[in-house]
Structure formats: C-alpha cells, structure tokens
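Objective 1b. Sequence-to-structure analysis of Histidine ammonia-lyase.
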Amino acid sequence: MLTLTPGATPLADLERLWRKDMPARLHDGARSAVAASAARVEQAAQGRAAIYGVNTGFGKLASVRIAPGDTATLQRNLILSHCAGVGAPLDAATTRLMMALKLLSLGRGASGVRPETVALLEAMLARGVVPRIPLQGSVGASGDLAPLAHMTAVMIGEGETLDGTPGAEALARAGLQPLVLGPKEGLALINGTQFSTACALAGLWRAERLLMGSVVTSCLSTDAIMGSDSPLDPAIHALRGHPGQIRVAALMRELMTGSEIRESHREGDRRVQDPYCIRCQPQVTGACLDLLAFAARTLETEANAVTDNPLVLEGAIVSGGNFHAEPVAFAADQIALAMAEIGAIAQRRVALMVDPTLSFDLPPFLTPDPGLNSGFMIAEVTTAALMSENKHLAHPCSIDSTPTSANQEDHVSMAAHGAVRLGRMADNLAVILGVEALCAAQGIGFRAPLRTSPRLARVVEAIRAAVPPLGADRPMAPDMEAAAALVASGALARAAGL
C-alpha cells in the first residue's frame, strides 16, 4: 500500500504505483482538511450568494442560479454531459496513476469533497476498479474535463470500466456503492490536470529508461565501429559544465573500460575524429538528460498541486485558473524534444554501422555475405522512418490553442495532446534503439577475436539470449520487436550495471 502525502509525494513513489499496480491511500493527516473543506462547501450551498459550480451553472452558464434542491442533479448532469471523450482507452497503469493524482489533489483540502468521496477513490484503486478513459477530448484547460468525467462516471454507477463492465456492476462486484455527488463534488472531480499529468509522467518515465538504454547502445556502437573514447575525457566535459553531459560521459567511460577493441587501435588509427553521432554523444544525450530532469521537477510540482476550481480557502470559495495545464504542456513538449533527439542521433549511428564507406571495415549492411543477403539494410530504413515520425510528433503542442465553450475558455494548453503523443514516441524510440543494439552486437561480433569491455559483453549476451546473430537473411521484424522490448524494459541497462 502506497501512502500519498498531499503536497509532498515524490515522483519515485508515483512511479512505483504506476509500474507495480499498487493500491494507494491518502495519509491520515490529510483527512481533517478534507472534511473541513467539505463542511464549508455544504454551508455555502445553503446560502444565497452565487458561488460558481456550487449553486450556478458551468462555463458560459455560470450566471444561471441553481436552486438548493437541485444541487445533486446539477453535479450528476455535469458528469453525464461531460462524458464526451472518444478514441482508444488509456492503459490501466496510467489510469490508476491518474486516479492517485486526483487523490493527491483532493487531499490538500481545498476542493470541498467529502471524506467518503476520497474513500471511494481509494477503494477503487485497492479493488481493481479501473474506469475506461478515452484518450481524446481534452484541450488541457478548465481541466481534463472529458477524461476525468469518464472516471467519475464509474464512481456514480455510470460509464464503464476498462474491461467493458458497466460502472454500477463493477462497483457492486467490488463490494462498493455508487456515490451520490454532493455540492461541487462533480466539478472538483473533473476540474484538474490529472489526465494530462499522468500521461506526461508515463512518458517521462519511459523516456528516462530509454535514455539510459541509449547510453548503453551508443557505447556498443562506438566499439562496433572502432570509435575513439578520447572525446569522453572528463576534462572536456568539466570545461562545459552541464551536469547531464558530465554524467553521460562518465557512464560511457565506465561501460567501455577494458575494451580490447578500443585498445587495439589507439596507435596508428588513420581517423583524426569520429563523426558527430559518435564523438558528441555526451553532449546530445546529456542535454536530453538535463531536459528530462527539468520536466520531472515541473511534473512533481503538478502532481502535488490543487488544480480544480473554485478553490475552498480559509475565508472564502474563490474562482481561479489552476486548471490551466500550461506547465504540463511545456513539460510534455520538453520530453518529446528529448525523445526525438535521442532517436535522431541513435539513427545516425545505425546508418554509420551499415555503411561500408564509414564503418571502418565492417561488411556492408553487417551481413557476412553481402549481395546475396541484404542484412540490416531495411531495418535501418525503418529506423529512419521512425526517427522522422518522432520529429513530426515533437512539434510543440503548447503553442497551439483554440477557443472553446462559447469563448469563455479562449486560451487552452493542449497539454493532453502533448502528453498522450509521448507513448507513441516512446514506442518508436524503443525500436530505433533496439535496432542499434542489434547492429552494434553484430558489428562487435565481426571484431573477434578482439573483445568488448566486460560490462558491454554482458549486454551482448543479453541481446544474444533474445536474438541470434544474423547470418543468412530472415524476417527482421521479430528480431526488432524483441530488441525493442529489451531496451524498453530496461534489461540492457541492467545487464550493463546501470
């Protein structure tokens, strides 16, 4: 059981929940603030003053007053009308993360929901009730309204779960009762950035793992083409000072230590400098590492934030704009840029290894019998296609906006678009790096009897346990899929001791 401390839950805890299907609950210390804010909303709902979302309509209809007897219907109608998402469903792990992020936000005691509402979310996480959340429909302002409405629909006995079970039936199977929404509760549940933030975090964690995989594959490629490790000299990187660059160079030095291939050509190497895709790996990958670290800080803040509207403060219930997901949109764009660049430089290393004019005596397309066999020729073409696709997908979403809700919501963040596309980019990047791993392992094999470093040798063993060396041509897709899985799962990084 993961205990969520509102305002202070680290990303490492949330990543464990996402990866390991853990139940989660709010820290007991948060419950008094939740109850107090609910009491203030209940009192306000009985008063005469117009309070947005408590006794008024929503969005452009905020000037319409709602009678006290209709507040429950108001909240239910809000959820039903906002269940307007379309497209494929969000995966179970990220849906559960979204629910946990909503718990964190509600647990700050500024949203006005009752303790029983929080308890239902906790019970759904504990008992495997996972709503079906369509991926499309949010513009990332006024909250992720449609995705969160599909989550809330199951809480009130409507909608359906990811396995297609109607919401009421899914709750009953779990021994739970549907919620009758109190004043403001529907609005509190669907107003917020939790869908965008959850998808961005999933993209971040996948990108971080893929980046470490790229450090490993880049070292393999350097040995495969008999590249120099001189550009990894720590003095070079200290003079520039970027922490990501310094770290990547240090990791690469460690991984390549003890390589017989490298030692074999220290003297008499006719090349003065390697191509940029070899020589500038720490500079590019390190910059990506720094960019991911910046995005992580933004998303950790957002994961612990209150992002619904209005907010229940000590002396008043106040309308604001915390639901605008601009910080998440910027973070998602940064993650996308990092993934695109990791893939771009890796693809150039693949191209280098298959090109006999550049690969320092490796056979054309890394096949032992070129001409009769095409070897990795079209696998490299596939990496070029995926690299190009990721470049297109990396176009910033945060600079886009379109007015919605009769121009009441006239500037939106598009954070959901920015975050959702990260999953597709990560899939593409895993294949690019998987192909690089296969090419590099094949190239290192051609250097025998010279051996790579002990740590990289363990990586080659892990690759060969899944994919045998390429002799005569065979279908490449299964090999590429297996190699991509090794990178995406972190298996190659683990084999290297990272």
